[in-house]
Known about the structure:
There is one protein chain. By secondary structure, the chain is an alpha/beta fold. Among the domains are: 48-185, Rossmann fold (3-Layer(aba) Sandwich); 203-359, NAD(P)-binding Rossmann-like Domain (Rossmann fold, 3-Layer(aba) Sandwich), CATH 3.40.50.720. It is built from 16 helices and 13 strands. It has helices at residues 7-14, 19-31, 39-46, 94-111, 131-145, 164-177, 203-217, 239-250, 273-283, 297-301, 340-348, 356-359, 362-376, 382-407, 414-423, 432-451; strands at residues 50-59, 65-76, 82-83, 86-89, 117-123, 154-155, 231-235, 254-260, 263-266, 293-295, 307-310, 329-331, 352-354. The strands form 3 sheets. It has a 7-stranded mixed beta sheet, sandwiched between helices. A hairpin with a 2-residue loop joins β8 (254-260) and β9 (263-266). α4 crosses α16, α13 packs across α14 (382-407) and α14 (382-407) crosses α15 (414-423). It starts with 6 loop residues before the first helix and ends with a helix.
Amino acid sequence: MTTTDTPAAASRAAEDLNPLHIGRQQLDRAMKHVPSLKQGLVEFLKCPLRTITLCFPVEMDDGSVRTFTGYRVLHSRVRGPGKGGIRYHPDVTADEVRALAGWMTWKCALADIPFGGSKGGVVCNPKELSQAELRRITRRYIADLGDNIGPHTDIPAPDLYTNEQTMAWIYDTYDAMHPGENNRPVVTGKPVDLGGSLGRSEATGRGCLEATRHALARGAVKGLASLTGARVAVQGFGNAGSVAARLFREAGAVIVAVSDSQGGVFSERGLDVKAALEFKARHDTVVGLPGTKTVTNAELLSVSCDVLIPAAMENQIRGDNAGQVKARLVCEAANGPTTPAADDVLRRNGVTVIPDILANSGGVTVSYFEWVQNIENEQWTLEEVNDKLRVKMQRAVDAVLDKWVELNGLVGGGPAATGQLAENRHKVAVDLRTAALAVAVGRVAHVALERGIWP
Ligand code: GLU
């Protein structure tokens, strides 16, 4: 039996799941809607400025030596220094990091923060590494990157399986290499007592909440005006997913399902998110949470709900399973969870998707706040951070919804036009991802031309 023997497997095999190719397909769709974009500029915006590949040895706890591969990709610095997280995962590839760096460029432009885009990754399995090994990997990776990162050139942050502790090691390594300078703005997502911002650890999930609330208030989803009583399923229970589950619950939603890499749990009446967090802390998975039914990650995507939050990895919703999504709204807390083929299925089925570059931009937005606080040697209150985040998220949602209305041929923006479009789903030829990218690409292209092509 080959891997393409079932129809679902055949359609998955037919779909190109390389994230870089997917990012470029998304751009092709959007660039059609950016007037006067010269062909040469299109190529420039698609292509990362540089990809650094490092191979470095690390001594393991048992005295053996292992060689690791790490990447740091700078996609664009048109609007400011590169900005983007570092992920530690066994499946990291150069193309994945390139795609993620590109999405950072569009995300920062959409959030209207003065950064370009970048991303890093080390091929490793943190679940099988000790803290001491992770520390040595981090220090060696950062030391070998040398001055390719810096407070005004390229600024890392957390991503999959990296956290505040990783950022503290990054800061410490860079600081040892640049004594006597204010090095705090070289990395964001640091522990608060090391210059981290209040609210940063919750920011991705909070940003999802703010984006969803504002999109619903503007009538973007037919028949769903608020989160009160809305049924929500969350795939992924890491930082973004677990915080989103908690905050959506606090906002009045009912969390019917959550999952992690080992599987998921479902409850028709709604889960106790706090209990799920405690269970996960004790058992390293949510599977087995008392009073719930076990589901697979694939089943979680098709549970009956109003809002589906993919908060795990890329390529979860594809051409072969998008038809099973029952949610009315997909809010992408993860980067790249939906493929272009899935986007088409969801649009045809009337499912609205708040795309990653909008939905999860709360993380990098508060990273920007952290960077500003570090430069000024200030610390803002949590209230200040969350208020500023809300304003940023609402502005970004407004820009995307206005563009969505315009690109679908309706005149005038505002809630009335958004609601009108949501009511007439058959008229929607352009989805929110394409609208969001059109806004972001337009902003980057405008600044590129304003600066002038050098020399
Ligand atoms: N890794 C996060 C993202 O994909 C945050 C990046 C940052 O804060 O720089 O948006």
